[in-house]
Amino acid sequence: MTSPTDKPNDGGVPVPVTPVGASSTAPAEYPPASPAGRGMFGNQGTGDVSGYGGLVRQRQPIEEASRPYGGYFDEVRDALEEAYPAFNDAIEKVVVDRGELTLHVRPERIAEVCQVMRDDLALRFELCSSVSGADYLGADERRLHVVYLLTSMTYRRRVRLEAAVSVEAPHLPSVTAIYPTADWQEREAYDMFGIVFDGHPNLTRILMPDDWEGHPQRKDYPLGGVPVEYKGAEIQPPNERRSYQ
Amino acid sequence: MTTSNYASERETDEGRVFTVTGGDWDTIVSGTDPINDERIVVNMGPQHPSTHGVLRLILELEGETVREARSVVGYLHTGIEKNLEYRNWVQGSTFVTRMDYLAPIFNETAYALAVEKLLGITDDITERATTIRVLMMELNRISSHLVWLATTGMELGAISIMLYGFREREYILDIFETITGLRMNHAYVRPGGVAQDVPDEAIVKIREFLKMMPKKLKEYEDLLSGQPIWTERTKNVAVLDVTGCVALGITGPVLRSAGLAWDLRKTMPYCGYETYEFDVPTHPDGDVWGRYQVRLAEIRESMKLVEQALDRLRPGPVMVADRKIAWPAQLAIGVDGMGNSLEHVAKIMGQSMESLIHHFKLVTEGFRVPPGQVYVAIEAPRGELGVHAVSDGGTRPYRVHYREPSFVNLQALPAMAEGGLIADVIAGGASLDPVMGGCDR
């Protein structure tokens, strides 16, 4: 993979570019634009012979959702706004995309928001289905995103909470006191992305060996791999193979 | 280091350490002083027949009572999520099917549903493809529950049920082989539909299986349900109530055995489950016995679903019509094995330049998925199987996370085991039905 503008790199490790929208307060909506279609066969120019070389694929920016969101999303927002006085301070952005509601939460507020989401009678998100990390390297200064998927069994609703932290200060409060199920899932996010959940009872590696160095699912961590010989031909590891992107 | 009959022992800073590889418990502990060494720490696994693969348990015992239990996972971590980011979207199916190896069809379906939601083609999936997915998932649920029954029986000392469970599962693997070409790791459910149509031969086999199975289920129940040892080992063992389950995120048969009829097929339907007729079995007790009852009942419900799905199968395409997404070729068996069918090769080489282009683009580069993120969850045999997929607009997944029920459910083990007997750790752990391939991914 090569980034749009730049020099060739080694081992398929994406090179960080200047974050887009780093100055805005809200975290990035999208990962950085895909390198697909550029730099094919090692060509650093456009490689174009058709005359359409200047064409650039546009990505629709996700706008902050405007009311009414539709479905139960409005009710959830209203209920949270009513039950949580610091709503305007804590919620950075509300996004409705593909029929899913995402609330971008300021990282230091995530535990408070979860507490209200779980306990308020109009919200009742009893189950924390999933906690996972994602690395938006190159799109966001606060590139480490933590994604919480809350489920209300009473009302049969789902809401996604997203909090973003930077690599330099990857701290946010743990939600294990509110959702004990987040225990191992936060450990996994720590293990894979190096996100530190303050107040977690036992924040250690869970999938990787205890003495492992680095956080493997960060985008600047190489996939690794060794060439394999098959019927006399040497097959490169996947991150070094010729890419048709 | 001295070696007694069964256990070798050595002194460390922390106390005396025994290495046990089998044998008689009395002989092993005869070296300890019951007055001064009240608590001993036992390390079980990661290689142990009753830990379902490579789960490691660390148990602190007082006599035979477990005071503290901790589980250690990660021995089967294969980096599937990271690997997905270096392959195109279709190739992802081949990876995710290897996660929970007892429920491969569920892994694939959840992945396919997530990619389709990202693409915005959820409504374009053909009826036949959806029906085949339901058919395959329910058959897979039966085979997974059969393995649960088999292994749990074995762990509690009922060896016959182990043979029977695996024997019947073999029928289903046979059906899978007829349909997908493989017994496991099918990569059959693909974004956009399924890889192949179901051959008539498989329909006959499934009907045979449905006819045979009720008698077998009765046999299992005759073998286990009235049996005093089985009842003693399972009733009131490893109890976890609804509050505990929800707090710990436990879903699936374990939650239903505590009395809450939470089944995503009913509560948040997908693949048209709302149009099928089936019940969600529950049990009031929340013990191992309840989980046994719930799983047996679920096999019966799944058979109802398979039957309904068979009746609904109408001829039609099994892939979306969009040529920019649908995998171009039907596979066929040739003289040199499985590959693209001759008709397809003739078409792209001789007749249709456009087909050739589509084939080339899809096979080398893959399709592009508009940027954004989705979460899709389905009811796997072990509970909520969720896929959180992020796309950057390219031909490869930017990030795919599996919310694996085995991983989340294993957190319940200390809650079930602490305060109970060491033998019940086995029963409790088995009743969670963890599959380490799924847990560690």
Automatic annotation (TrEMBL), chain A:
Primary subcellular site in the record, as a coarse category: membrane
UniProt-recorded Gene Ontology molecular function terms: NADH dehydrogenase (quinone) (non-electrogenic) activity; NADH dehydrogenase (ubiquinone) activity; quinone binding
Region (Disordered): 1-44, 223-245
Biased amino acid composition, Low complexity: 11-21
Topology in membrane: Peripheral membrane protein
Presence of keyword Cell wall biogenesis/degradation: no
Keyword Cell membrane: yes
Catalysed reactions, as listed in the record: a quinone + NADH + 5 H(+)(in) = a quinol + NAD(+) + 4 H(+)(out)
Entry GO CC: plasma membrane
Domain of life: Bacteria
Pfam families to which the protein is assigned, alphabetical: Complex1_30kDa
Entry-linked InterPro entries: NADH_DH_suC (IPR010218), NADH_quin_OxRdtase_su_C/D-like (IPR037232), NADH_UbQ_OxRdtase_30kDa_su (IPR001268)
Top class in the EC scheme: translocase
Subcellular locations according to the entry: Cell membrane
NADH:ubiquinone oxidoreductase 30kDa subunit domain: residues covered: 103-225
Entry keywords, A to Z: Cell membrane, Membrane, NAD, Quinone, Translocase, Transport
This enzyme's EC code(s): 7.1.1.-
Subunit and interaction comment: NDH-1 is composed of 14 different subunits. Subunits NuoB, C, D, E, F, and G constitute the peripheral sector of the complex.
Classification via PANTHER family: NADH DEHYDROGENASE [UBIQUINONE] IRON-SULFUR PROTEIN 3, MITOCHONDRIAL, NADH DEHYDROGENASE UBIQUINONE IRON-SULFUR PROTEIN 3
Function: NDH-1 shuttles electrons from NADH, via FMN and iron-sulfur (Fe-S) centers, to quinones in the respiratory chain. The immediate electron acceptor for the enzyme in this species is believed to be a menaquinone. Couples the redox reaction to proton translocation (for every two electrons transferred, four hydrogen ions are translocated across the cytoplasmic membrane), and thus conserves the redox energy in a proton gradient.
Family affiliation: Belongs to the complex I 30 kDa subunit family.
Protein name from the UniProt record: NADH-quinone oxidoreductase subunit C
Native organism taxonomy: Bacteria, Bacillati, Actinomycetota, Actinomycetes, Micromonosporales
TrEMBL record, chain B:
One Pfam match: Complex1_49kDa
Record-listed E.C. numbers: 7.1.1.-
InterPro entries: NADH_Q_OxRdtase_suD, NADH_UbQ_OxRdtase_49kDa_CS, NDH1_su_D/H, NiFe-Hase_large
GO CC terms in record: plasma membrane
Catalytic activity, reaction form: a quinone + NADH + 5 H(+)(in) = a quinol + NAD(+) + 4 H(+)(out)
Key word Translocase present: yes
Transmembrane residue ranges: 146-166
NADH-quinone oxidoreductase subunit D domain mapped to chain residues: 156-441
GO molecular-function terms, A-Z: NAD binding; NADH dehydrogenase (quinone) (non-electrogenic) activity; quinone binding
Keywords per UniProt: Cell membrane, Membrane, NAD, Quinone, Translocase, Transmembrane, Transmembrane helix, Transport
Broad enzyme group: translocase
Record's bilayer topology term: Peripheral membrane protein
Location(s) in or outside the cell: Cell membrane
Family: Belongs to the complex I 49 kDa subunit family.
Subunit text: NDH-1 is composed of 14 different subunits. Subunits NuoB, C, D, E, F, and G constitute the peripheral sector of the complex.
Protein function: NDH-1 shuttles electrons from NADH, via FMN and iron-sulfur (Fe-S) centers, to quinones in the respiratory chain. The immediate electron acceptor for the enzyme in this species is believed to be a menaquinone. Couples the redox reaction to proton translocation (for every two electrons transferred, four hydrogen ions are translocated across the cytoplasmic membrane), and thus conserves the redox energy in a proton gradient.
Name of the protein this chain belongs to: NADH-quinone oxidoreductase subunit D
Organism: Micromonospora saelicesensis
Gene: nuoD
